[in-house]
Design goal:
globular; 69% helix; mainly alpha
Length: 331
């Protein structure tokens, strides 16, 4: 009986090699960082879209609902004080930063009370146009994310130019993928959140154990979801085929792929602390914005390169194993 020889199989793509290749690609194609650069400059120096006036108009109704729910006067006062401090800092333009496909941003969810140009312009949202603003900004975020991912994929995989999706198809598939992602996140995340919140009321230790277990199990979801969009931009797949391809790749390469995703997150979020050191009131923030745009775009390029190499390696391995089984049956 003939058995497949593991030494005849090619080694899987290296994590460091993919990341280095991503940095090399972006360092020679700096135009790829323009979209995250423009988004951060807008969120930094542009107007703010505030919910403060809307919150103040609904404050009395909210207090009446909470009182009817049995919240004590002391807790109610503390709760309202927290909302008063939080709501003025919220900028609805943050919705332009969408996930899983979106333009990376250093200024996302940051309190920017003042800029080098002085106090920012504040636009207030009313109850009548809140839903319209949210829908418009999220849609623009999806469109911008599709353009950004296609732009970076074009530089990352120059030998696959013919396989790149057209601009309209890339944006359409991005929107459909994002809708599926949002639906699954709400369907899974909301019940889990409510369940954990209920556990905290019963037993906080048990709730922490559940959170820890869920954190380990989440790697089975995070890794394939991280690569969901890549099939669209690398293999010109539709969003459903891209989701299936990502799940298949993660199934056979989970240890290596999970380490790659973890490395990407650690590098990205870790360096964000460095880029956030300059005060928003200083023009030195430009250095942080430039650094963030370069690093995150290089990491995105590295993920495209890793996905291409890993799927090609997986296909080679499957073909060799299939050929080996054929030889075994013949013998």
């Amino acid at each position: 009986m003939v058995t497949p020889k593991t030494e005849s199989l090619p080694p899987p793509p290296g994590i460091i090699h993919s990341i280095r290749a991503g940095f090399d690609v972006i360092s020679t194609n700096l135009a790829a960082i323009l979209l995250p650069l423009m988004l951060d400059v807008f969120l930094w120096l542009g107007p703010r879209l505030s919910l403060e006036r809307l919150f103040l108009s609904l404050q009395s109704e909210m207090m009446a609902i909470w009182k009817a729910g049995g919240i004590s006067a002391a807790d109610l006062e503390q709760l309202m004080e927290g909302y008063k401090n939080m709501v003025p800092q919220f900028n609805l333009f943050w919705l332009l930063r969408t996930i899983p496909v979106g333009i990376s941003s250093l200024m996302f969810a940051r309190n920017l009370p003042q800029t080098p140009l002085g106090l920012p312009t504040i636009w207030q949202v009313t109850g009548g146009d809140l839903i319209l603003w949210m829908g418009l900004l999220i849609f623009l975020g999806w469109v911008g994310g599709g353009l950004y991912f296609r732009w970076v994929a074009r530089f990352s995989i120059p030998d696959l130019q013919e396989q790149l999706p057209g601009t309209l198809k890339a944006v359409a598939q991005t929107v459909l993928l994002s809708i599926v992602w949002t639906g699954l996140t709400l369907a899974i995340g909301l019940p889990v959140f409510l369940f954990v919140a209920l556990l905290f009321q019963v037993n906080s230790i048990l709730a922490q154990i559940v959170i820890l277990g869920a954190s380990f199990l989440s790697m089975w979801l995070i890794v394939p979801m991280f690569f969901w969009p890549h099939g669209i931009f690398i293999k010109n797949q539709n969003f459903l085929v891209a989701i299936i391809s990502s799940a298949q790749m993660a199934r056979f390469t989970l240890p290596t792929s999970s380490m790659f995703v973890l490395t990407i997150f650690l590098l990205g979020f870790g360096l964000n602390f460095v880029w956030s050191i300059p005060s928003p009131e200083s023009w030195m923030t430009v250095v942080g914005i430039l650094g963030h745009a370069f690093i995150t775009t290089a990491l995105l390029a590295a993920s495209f390169i890793y996905y291409r190499d890993m799927t090609a390696w997986l296909q080679t391995v499957m073909e060799r194993l299939k050929a080996s089984r054929t030889v075994t049956r013949q013998v």
